[in-house]
Amino acid sequence: MSKIVVKGGNKLHGEVNISTAKNSVLPIIAACILSEDKCVIEKVPMLEDVFVISDILRSISADINIDKDTNKVIIDTSNIKDCNPCSELVKKMRASFLIMGPMIARFGKFRLCLPGGCNIGTRPIDLHLKGLSALGAEVNVGHGYVEASAKKLIGDKIYLDFPSVGATENIMMASVMAEGETIIENAAEEPEIRDLAKFLNSMGANIIGAGSGTIRILGVKSLKGSTHRPIFDRIESGTFMVAAAITRSKIKINGANEEYLKPIIAKLTEVGVHISSQGSSLIVDGRDELRPVDIKTMPYPGFPTDMQSQMTGLLCTVMGTSIITETIFENRFMHVAEMKRMGANIKIDGRSAVIEGVKKLTGAEVKATDLRAGASLILCGLVAEGETEIADIYHVDRGYVDIEKKLKALGADIERVNE
Ligand code: UD1
Questions:
Q1: 123-168: pLDDT as tens digits
Q2: Residue set of the binding site
Q3: Which residues contact 77 (CB under 8 A, 6 or more apart)?
Q4: CA proximity to 32, closest of 106, 136, 117, 131
Q5: What is the CATH number of the domain that holds 261?
Q6: Are 296 and 253 found together in one domain?
Q7: Which positions does UniProt annotate for UDP-N-acetyl-alpha-D-glucosamine binding (predicted)?
Q8: Of all atoms in ligand 1, which is nearest to the CA of residue 163?
Q9: Assigned domain for 65 exists
Q10: Which residues are annotated as a binding site for UDP-N-acetyl-alpha-D-glucosamine?
């Protein structure tokens, strides 16, 4: 097991290159099931979750070639025979459910063990299943498995009770070859959904409105292979923006789409961070005095839940009272107990964290309890007095490429220790 050891106090400087988005790449790899032709995904981030979804596809006889030197992934699903992927792999990651839509669309069936993932809430899949049922699939859940079958999928109007990212993606993928038109209302609007639709349309799908609350999908007969380069990871960009802010430094972030980062830029600007764009780069300057703020996580274009723990870390170092309210996941304050070990002053009140800024954080032995929590503890370690050891770094490796190398190149005193 790896841990990361950070000695706090160094200012950051220089540039960092952002990888492509994990949350785009995972559904896009799943979407490759939809065509018998080869698909090529470029600039894929070499992350644990990418390896897991690739192994899940391999477990049903897909041929996946991952070139770690060029970051190119070639996916050939022409040999898929059975629709019952390896349960041990599926349990590793919640995003495994993303293969449900493509499997039912191409093979008319699947059997999947109920997926796992970060421990940030119960995370049901009822909306995904409701969508598949509306398209005509017969869905059964029992004994830890979800099974579905359909002779034919037929387009329908589907209203999502909540704009779930995964449900929107699954229904979009399930309906691309359904008969007639599918309309998803109250769809999630995250940029990764627009990216997935772009890829599906390049395969021959007919999707309009992805990235808005209403998505129309006109079913086509079949899809062909395609090549795609996913969008930059807005959460990784946001994490490095907070790294600049928490260390009161100025850095350049290469690979940042300003439009997709609007909710994060707006909040950091309110905190007092100066952010300007230069093409696809952002200059982030956190050297001015910072102010406390209130934040509520919301579906896109609201403030992303995936940036909540990093902002909590930052606000611990900003004098005054900040309140963060988490509305997306019910159990996403696990980093708070770890931050308190580092001297943070945070009180949890239901779905809100009340943060009183402290003069200094102090290094401690802490644990990454989930992916973003782990990242936030690394950020706190960058400014804590003395040494911070973050254990269970495998959570962080699910979503950040070489986080310690990127921070080290910016001047942080940080090492990975393999035990
Ligand atoms: C995706 C992202 C994750 C991000 C989350 C919210 C991927 C691979 N992961 O996860 O990083 O934190 O969006 O932005 O893209 N819900 C239901 N029933 C459902 C589905 C969801 O009640 O059928 C609830 C969940 O429990 C949660 C909320 O809806 O409380 C949001 O979940 P959702 O948008 O589906 O997140 P994911 O797609 O799992």
A1: 689 999 999 999 999 999 888 899 999 999 999 999 999 999 999 9
A2: 22-23, 94, 123-127, 306, 328
A3: 32, 33, 35, 36, 57, 62, 63
A4: 106
A5: 3.65.10.10
A6: yes
A7: 94, 123-127, 306, 328
A8: 34
A9: yes
A10: 94, 123-127, 306, 328
